[in-house]
Design a protein that fits this description.
The structure holds 2 protein chains of 2 kinds.
Chain A: H1 16-23, E1 29-33, H2 40-49, E2 55-56, E3 63-66, H3 76-79, E4 83-85, H4 92-97, E5 104-107, H5 114-122, E6 128-133, H6 136-149, E7 154-158, E8 171-177, H7 203-216, E9 217-227, H8 236-245, E10 251-254, E11 264-265, E12 269-270, E13 273-274, E14 283-285, H9 287-290, E15 295-302
Parallel strand pairs in A: 5-6, 5-8, 6-7, 8-9
Antiparallel strand pairs in A: 1-3, 1-4, 2-3, 9-15, 10-15, 11-14, 12-13, 14-15
Chain B: H1 14-19, E1 22-23, H2 26-36, E2 46-50, E3 55-60, E4 71-74, E5 76-80, E6 87-88, H3 90-96, E7 104-105, H4 110-117, E8 122-125, E9 136-142, E10 145-154, E11 168-174
Parallel strand pairs in B: 7-9
Antiparallel strand pairs in B: 1-2, 2-3, 3-5, 5-6, 8-11, 9-10, 10-11
The chains are: A alpha/beta, B alpha+beta.
């Protein structure tokens, strides 16, 4: 594979050779236990009884890595809704969002619904989850995932996330897992390595969605912004722009770190841009650190009512 | 169907009342109790909303959907009501079926489960059908995890048929959803098809 388009990140990924080596390997198959139906321990046991050794993911008590030869969507445990298949780094935003039972939570860019069902299960299928996407066909896919796992605390909506109505009410927590250039998914989707792709093409939309998330969150609530790309144009530069636009003390960035999961801090500078010192609270994930895809997550607390 | 907000569970949130059509759940829960022995308490804290003319959804009574934008779906598909006998949806059967006390085969042997997941019709023995009360919907599970609904058709005793297997209680037609079903050559218990 040609990783030429990633050369621009050589100075920030740390061990470049390990990075390239990881990108060249197949990505592990990961699942998490649907605790509405089964405990993680019982899931590991039933998988073992059916000849599948599930290795616990060290940082996520519900998560497991399955052998690479397994077809996780064809197994009895999947069909019974006992687990959900999700790339390991894609589990990070919800863990950092830390959903609680009974809360009112909004997933602004929810399709295909993997993170929505993870949120709903963390909420123990109580309270209110709104899973939104702007494409109605993709909203249907969210519904399928919710049904298989047996979740009944969720409403789906089809709306442009960047202009989501204020009349939807306020939310305790909001996930803004925004559309991006998906560079971090190259192990599964090599087409993202196309050198003609331009990182940062969606940054206008990304800023608008983050801004909207801040607007809809209640004071004291939490917002998680995430992408599956390395491009600072879609990560730190988006956040910096929004921090510049918000009055001081509207939001603050919380440390995004998880014990047992290796990550790098958000960048303090990129090319000729210097970022807010809080930016190092964000989490950058490179594939060689945990044998995963690439990811970026930033966690915000809304401190004061927004005037955005 | 009745639409009075006489709920078997609890009062829905103002947002649910404003944005959905709440239905009286009691008659539907009665039907499930009668066929499967699922007690009303199983649905404590939940209520039923009319998604469209064909189906009811189940949702937390405390759920607060947005006033705007309009929702595409609220809660989980629960009961199909556009048929002679109301039919529990597969997600609802999977979620609530464990509370059933009759018309349930909770731990079907693997060959039957494979047939069920491939949407095939299969025979059940008298032992397997011991709590079946007659023709109608039955819950099919594996290791006490319900996979969905089937339709039980009792065998007709026929002394004129010399090879009639007297141990067969009848046949179950699989209602496992087409979109979720497995190809015939797929073994859900893991086997040589995994590469």
């Amino acid at each position: 594979m040609d990783f030429q388009s990633f050369e621009r990140y050589r100075s920030i990924v740390g061990d470049w050779d390990a990075f390239i080596a990881a990108l060249s390997r197949p990505q592990p198959v990961c699942v998490w236990a649907n605790t509405l139906k089964i405990t993680p321990e019982a899931l590991a046991k039933t998988l073992a009884e059916h000849g599948c050794e599930a290795l616990p993911i060290p940082w996520y008590s519900r998560g497991f890595t399955l052998p690479n030869h397994i077809s996780p969507g064809n197994r009895i445990e999947y069909l019974a809704g006992l687990y959900h298949v999700q790339e390991e780094t894609s589990m990070l935003p919800v863990v950092l969002l830390d959903p609680q039972p009974g809360e009112r939570i909004l997933d602004l860019c929810a399709a295909p619904g993997n993170k929505s069902v993870q949120i709903a299960v963390h909420m123990e299928s109580t309270g209110t989850l709104i899973a939104n996407d702007r494409d109605y066909r993709r909203v249907r896919a969210i519904g399928h995932a919710l049904e298989r796992l047996g979740v009944y605390n969720t409403s789906t909506t089809t709306y442009d996330a960047s202009s989501y109505p204020v009349s939807a009410g306020v939310f305790d927590r909001i996930l803004a897992d925004v559309p991006c250039s998906c560079e971090g998914t190259s192990r599964k989707h090599p087409e993202v390595l196309d050198p003609n792709r331009r990182p940062g093409a969606s940054s206008g939309l990304q800023k608008a969605i983050l801004k909207k998330a801040i607007q809809l969150c209640r004071p004291g609530g939490r917002i998680v912004y995430s992408t599956c790309t390395y491009a600072p144009e879609e990560n730190e530069m988006v956040i910096q722009e929004i921090l510049n636009q918000t009055p001081p003390n509207t939001v603050r960035m919380l440390p995004a770190s998880i014990p047992g999961f290796v990550s790098s801090p958000g960048l303090s500078s990129w090319q000729d841009h210097t970022f807010d010192p809080q930016m190092t609270n964000a989490m950058r994930v490179y594939p060689h650190q945990n044998d995963t895809g690439g990811f970026f997550v930033a966690v915000f607390e809304k401190v004061n009512p927004s005037t955005l | 169907m009745p639409v009075s907000p006489t709920l078997a569970t609890e009062t829905p949130s103002p947002e649910l009342l404003q944005t959905t059509k709440i239905v009286d759940a009691a008659p539907y829960f009665d039907t499930l109790q009668e066929r499967f022995g699922i007690p009303h308490e199983t649905f404590q804290g939940l209520c039923l909303v009319q998604a469209n003319s064909k189906i009811l959804h189940i949702v937390n009574a405390t759920h607060q959907p947005p006033l705007r934008p309009k929702t595409d779906g609220v809660g989980m598909p629960f009961l199909r009501i556009n048929m002679a006998v109301f039919k529990l949806t597969t997600p609802a059967a999977m979620r609530f079926g464990n509370a059933a006390t009759k018309n349930i085969l909770a731990d079907a042997p693997q060959p039957l489960v494979s047939a069920y997941l491939a949407r095939q019709t299969f025979d059940v023995t008298h032992e397997q059908a011991k709590n079946f009360t007659g023709r109608g919907y039955v819950l099919i599970g594996y290791q006490n995890r319900i996979l969905g609904l089937g339709f039980f058709q009792p065998a007709v005793p026929d002394s004129d048929t010399p090879n009639h297997d007297s141990d067969i209680a009848g046949q179950v037609e699989s209602f496992f959803p087409k979109a979720w079903s497995l190809a015939d050559d797929c073994n859900p218990f893991g086997d040589e098809h995994e590469r």
